[in-house]
Amino acid sequence: MEKFLEHLEEFKLRHCHAELESLIHSKREFLNQAKGNLLKFRQVFEKIQDHRPSVIDLKNRVVTIGTPEDLSPEESRQLFQSLDQLCPWRKGPFELFGIRIDSEWQSWMKWERLLPHIKNLKGRRIMDIGSSNGYYMFRAAAHAPLMVIGLEPQSYFYFQYLVMQKFLNRDNVFCLPIPHDEWPKIPRYFDTVFCMGVLYHRPSPVEMLRSIHESLRRGGELVLENLVLETRQNLCLFPEDRYAKMRNVYFIPDLLVMESWLCRAGFKNIRCVDVARTSLEEQRKTRWIQTESLKDFLDPHNPDKTVEGYPAPVRAIFLAEAG
After folding, report:
1. Roughly what angle, to the nearest 10 degrees, separates helices 155-168 and 36-47?
2. Is the pTM of this model over 0.85?
3. What is the maximum alpha-carbon separation in the chain?
4. pLDDT tens column, 218-233
5. pLDDT below 70 — which residues of the chain?
């Protein structure tokens, strides 16, 4: 986190130094006083030794760091044990020194659905809201942006990111363990904002979209992926309790509602570039998660429905420009 402060002048954020320094200091203090799982994750990360990878590949589906020959058998065993203690690995896949992390999500599928449609990322200032372990940030880094900053409040995702960054050591990729609503208001700054798999967890989606709009420069691009209903009837699902066993799902809009939300938030040139039902190929249980996955969230007698009886997950990607 402190490394980010060293680059503020380069990123034209020097005027925010005091606010960002205070925020980072408070988060560092929180991590230093960690208890329970947070303490466990921190201790696991701190025990991982530094290794110099002979190969780094961020351009292909598997984010690859190093080869098996870079480590001794004992070093490989220790690294595997540490990575295993940081489960569950939701996003990926990754391969670290020959250790394949077969994550729950085949995240390359979403990346390949959106990449042909978005603006070139070279030289851009990018934010990834809910960046998880950094898979999409590292894929974006392969396109030579000026900087990528992720916001990820979930502790085990944040420490997974730290493991990757320990070996990658990208000087233009950063992650802060904070939610989006704690990020300082910096008007008209970012060129691209990714907000994927986040909006349906917000009780006030239009308010969040307005905040994102304010943070984008004029003509800047929002890349939004969200659960949707496959209709254009101006409908919105508000689950009574859970959706696909998730407690914190609020609004699932249909395609027309999603466009209306973006319009009300000030966006223009709104386009839906992809609609895809989440498949058992894209999201599935692996040995790198010790929890349920998509198959467990669907009605075993009717996979078109969730276990609660709602339409099965369908996700759409929208692109929009800040007005």
Report:
1. 10
2. yes
3. 60
4. 999 999 999 999 999 9
5. none
